[in-house]
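Slide 14.
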Amino acid sequence: MKLQKLTIKNLASIEDAVIDFENGPLSEESLFLICGETGAGKTTILDAICLALYNETPRMDHAENEKYKDLNQTFSAKKEDVAINDSRQLMRRNTSEAWTELEFTGSNETPYTARWYVARAHRKISGAVQDVRWTLENKKSGAQLNKKNEIKAEIQAAVGLTFEQFCRTTMLAQGDFTKFLQSKESEKSDILEKLTGTSIYSEIGAEIYAATKERRTEYENQNRKLEGIHILAEEEISTIKEAIATQNAGVKEAYEQKTIALAKRDWLKKYSELLLTREQQKKMWEGKQAQLQSDEFKQKELLIKEWNATADARNWLSTLKQQQQQQQQNHAQAGMLRASFALLDGGSKWLCGFLEEQEDKLHRAEKYLQEHSPLLPMFEQSQSIITGLKSALDAQTRIDTYNAHLERLAAQQPVKVKERTDKEAALTRKEQENHTLQNEINLRNKQLETMDRPALQDKKNKLDAGRENLLQALSALSLLAETERTLNEAKENEKALNAKVEACQKQYVLLQTAFDSKKTSYDDIRTLYDKQKEAVEEWAKEARSRLAVGDTCPVCGQEIKSLCKDEDFQSVLAPIRTSLETKEKEYKEAEQALNNNRTESKTYGTLAENARQSTARALRSYNLARTDAQAKCAQCNGIGLSTTTGETLKKLLEENKLEADKLNEKLTEVQKLSAQIIALQRQKDECQKHVDAARQAFNSADRVLNELKNSIVNYKSLTANEKENIRATMDRVTPHILWEGWNTEWKNSPLSFIDRLTQATRNYRLAQEKQRELKSAIALIHKELEGININKESIDAAFPDWRNAPAATQEMEIKDLGIAWNNLNTQASGLKQSISSTADQMARLQKDLTGFYAANPTLDEERITVLSAWSGSRIEALRASLQTLKEEEVAASTSFHLATGQVEEHINRKPEIEENENLETLDALIANLEEKITAGNQSIGQQKLRLEENTRNIDRIKEEKERADRLREEYLKDGDRLCRHFGDERGKNFRNIAQSFVLKELLAGANFYLQRLTDRYELECQAGSLTILLRDFHQGGSARPACTLSGGESFLVSLSLALGLSSLSRQSLSVDTLFIDEGFGTLSSDYLNTVMDTLEKLHQMGGKKVGIISHVEGLKERIKTQIQVRRIDSSRSEIEVVNTL
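Slide 15: predicted structure.
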């Protein structure tokens, strides 16, 4: 995996930053420094990488998994619950959103963009924090993943590491290894488990223990379950069956008695109900007969008869009253129309007066037009005259404005001429100063050329390259010596372990023979014990079946007080059980010894195999180191490997240093001269800026003066043009003005003259328009009056008396008078027709009613009016109610006779009932019998349940016995033996076994790096423990505890362990960048240089870049490529990637 670009926004203290690993300073160096004040945000860079890749951060894993109330609103403007280990805690305060984005290329060569984003609601600072949006984009295919489980799977496939593995292998926590070195023996397992991610072994050990414990508990519970199952004796079963038979007979007899009592009770209940029903039906029949004979019923029948006979008369009377109402409405309408006639007549008179007024106005307008007709040509050209006069007036105004501008510009011209002259003199002075500086720079450049700086620099580069080759050769010789010593020790260790493996194999043959013998003896006596136990159990069962308490003993003749229990019979097996337990103990001890030997043999075998691999690796390392040393020495003047090679290299290195010092003195002189040239060039650049500024000022002054002169010429030309326009305009409009003496008025007050001409023209045109309007209005009035006279004559013919109606109180204008007369004429004609038609209908209806009253003397208008109040629906409802009453009387009679027949029939079916038997006594008897039946059935059911349960218990005993035997076999066969070797409650046994192998591999990888950091120490561990010892070659190879190391030495060992863990975990995977956090402050300058050289070689060894997070000033001087994290204020930081050289 290769990091390309990291973008951070509002994460912790970092406000906005972009770190490009492929372009700029970071692309050129294999070692870079992340530096800044404490708390500035250095570790936030690592958090940003982890959030983008895994949606997790190492620092959040250390937080307690609990929640807090944000009462002070430091994290949110609202009170909300947020887990302390929630990654959203990293969003910077008082911001609305935060994100981190990482562009990288996966181990599968596919480019990706991973993005972690969190925001507040509505992008407001006061909004609640929303859920994290985590996305992964495949830049090759364009596909984007949004689901967390899909992203995790794709990241793990692309990077090749889980989050925990990524943190252990890419972010090296040498501080945790320092804690591991200095911890107590009891604490080392927990720390090593955290460092190497081997918690799975603890879990396996604990699961083995838990599974074995569960099997043992299950076996013990099964035995207790067998003891709790009870089986009935034969005597108990017989007694239960006899009780069931007796209770069945009693229940059957009670059922028969209950059936007889129920029949008697039902007959008595039915008889009472029938008598009550017959009495009710009789009362209902009598009530219906009384209603049919009542006066009310007869009056309703008469009403229906009369209503049917008067249908025509009711219609005639109703229609006559409607016509009378219509005639009243007609007379009322005639009165209203008569008033409208008087009103419209007044309007007609007003219209005649208005006509006379309009004719008078028309006469005056025609007189005005005749008087002003000589001026008509001027009025027709008035618009053109006025436009020309206004144009001449505007031109004069512009001439006045141009003259004012000319006076102002003439006053400014001398000032601008002097300003241009001053700027030109200043430009000349600045150009002379600039020329002087350029001459001095040319002189010093000639001096620098005579010193041949490129040749000096080339010679220095060659000396530096030679020195680097010498240093690399010396380092390669040191590494060769170390790898040779490591190879010899690996061979000795492999030989010793092979001897131990062979001894264990020989001992295993002896132990296997002893185990087989003891196992055979145990199996034989176990078989004998099972057979005797089965025989005793059968004998005990048979004895119990033949004997009972109270019988006479067939042996001693005495009465049997009690039967022996199972444990009494089991005492017969005591001797053979003791022998079985002894053999079982011997067999298990032999098995334990065999298992211990097998475990030890396997352990030594694994150790021997590891030793062989270590020897092979050491041999490969030695060959590589020898080849590297030969190549490095050959680069140093062709020196070959020998015992004196080291001294030769050191002598050449000293000579190189002396020559480099002399060359540096000459280069210092060159640098001083170069510095002088640079200083002069800076002065010249500054002077050139002044020259440019002076030239720009001169050009500006010159441009302003030229513009002023051009403006004066332009204004003079504009003034002449405007005067010519005025003369031409006046020549054009003068012939059209017909007023005498108008020139004097125009010169004195031109605006008043224009207004007078405009108003005169408007008045003449208004008079013409008024003449046309009056002629049209007078014609319309004449036509309207003709129509009004026609309508008035028609109304007079229909209603002659309206002529004599009183006139309107005043004459006034009526809108749409002609239409109103038309409407009144139409309404009057319709009203006349309606009055005549209504009178004819009223006469005909009155004649029909007179004839009906003569034919029906009992009926008059009052009675018909009463009958008319009854609607058809009401009469129909009344007729239906009378018919319903008749039908109900017939139904009541039928029901009464039917009930009487049912009573007689029920008496014929009467059972034998005693005198003292009634409903109360029979109910009590039935309740008593039901209780007896219920109690008997419950007792029978309980007895049957006991028998069924006994049958099930017999089957259960057989099944549970088989299951108990199976559980015992499983527990003894697998679980118990495995648990004794590997299991315990916390899984420590198996973890310790596994960690001893892991630690061995870890130390081998760490020694590879430690040999490059120092030739003094080598790491090793005590067999069967996690204690780390250091072999001190400055003290004759003696072993010493890690806790005796100094601070700087402890850091070197911890760094080696961290690098070893990284290489151990990576296997074939490749992450191109490692990050090492803090710890360099405890190193001396010599150790610091060695560490830097080793870390730089990591890039050559595996293409790795190394990022160091530290405050150490020496590192800032040594590492030129830096990611600097600087505070902006108390809550914000910025990031800058720089190259300090």
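Speaker note: The first helix runs from residue 42 to 54.
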